[in-house]
Amino acid sequence: MDSPLVSVIVPIYNVEPYLQRCCESIAAQTCDNIEVILVVDGDQSDGSEELAGEWSRRDRRFTVVKQPHGGLAAARNTAIERASGTWLMAVDGDDYVPRDAIANLMAAVTADTDVVAGDWILFDDGSEPRGGKSRAAGITMTGDEALEAILYQDGRLTGSVCARLLRRSLFDEVRFPPGRLYEDLAVARQLYRQVRRVAVIPQVVYYYRQHRRGSILDDFKPQRADVLDILEAQLHDADAALTPAFKARLLAAAFNLWRLAPKSADYDALRGRCRTIIKRHRRECITNSKVRLRDRAASLASYLFIG
């Protein structure tokens, strides 16, 4: 019996040096019941579009869709609307996957499973993946437990939509917010409140390239404050059980931006906003044992460096 179709979503924007390896890794999957949707996000200044076209001519499983430049979220939305698989897998065009990634993820699927997540390896641009980070594996969670793990950043599950399979029906009423950073976090609550069961497997299923030159998260930009907007909106609508987790994630984001934002007049308003968030939520987070130790320690220290 054939396994259910998996729609692999690959947004493309000026990733020519990496796209060949990405596509090769997907084409080589031991589970071959896949469709691959390559979304060319606007005009490219390199050969990414031509390379995508070559893949669509070489392998009938690959389809190219071109859209006006709208960013990662818009590209993913375009692919979701065209996906015909039971399952979705997101692979960014500068990353790649082991050849048994989809097979290992599919092996953990049961009738009530809506998400299957695997491990991933981070590696710097210009190097090769080595080893892997230690993370809880071989576990199952409810959707609410998964969302709590994402918000507390406790190591069991990340908020990314990469390195996992997601049931396509989760996106029937959900789309990524175009033009914003942290688009995965923006939809996490909508997705995981629908989820019946999450399976986490120990196998590495994704190689994530970091510190790529030209990546929007490689340099500090004012748009990184999107994470505060997203979390404050979700905190406002959160139910009582998840409110402490949203506060913890918001506090962690504020500490991170406070640390990264340049100490210049251009960023005074952002640093002031971070200071306000930290002072508002630090006391409660200090006494919450689920909050990461480093954030609890930073909360204590903030009484000295923030007041």
Question: What structural keywords apply?
Answer:
307 residues; 2 domains; Spore Coat Polysaccharide Biosynthesis Protein SpsA, Chain A; 40% helix; single chain
Question: What's the SSE blueprint?
Answer:
Elements: E1 6-12, H1 16-27, E2 34-41, H2 48-58, E3 62-67, H3 72-82, E4 87-90, H4 101-106, E5 115-124, E6 139-141, H5 143-152, E7 164-167, H6 183-192, E8 198-210, H7 226-237, H8 243-260, H9 268-286, H10 293-305
Helix pairs in contact: 1-2, 5-6, 7-8, 8-9, 9-10
Can you give a write-up of this model?
- It is a single chain.
- The protein has helices spanning 16-27, 48-58, 72-82, 101-106, 143-152, 183-192, 226-237, 243-260, 268-286, 293-305, and strands at residues 6-12, 34-41, 62-67, 87-90, 115-124, 139-141, 164-167, 198-210.
- By secondary structure, it is an alpha/beta fold.
- The chain folds into 2 domains: 6-210, Spore Coat Polysaccharide Biosynthesis Protein SpsA, Chain A (Alpha-Beta Complex); 222-305, no CATH class.
- Strands 3-2-1-4-7-5-8-6 form an 8-stranded mixed β-sheet, sandwiched between helices.
- Helix 1 (16-27) links the parallel strand 1 (6-12) and strand 2.
- Helix 8 crosses helix 9.
- It is globular.
- The mean pLDDT is 93.
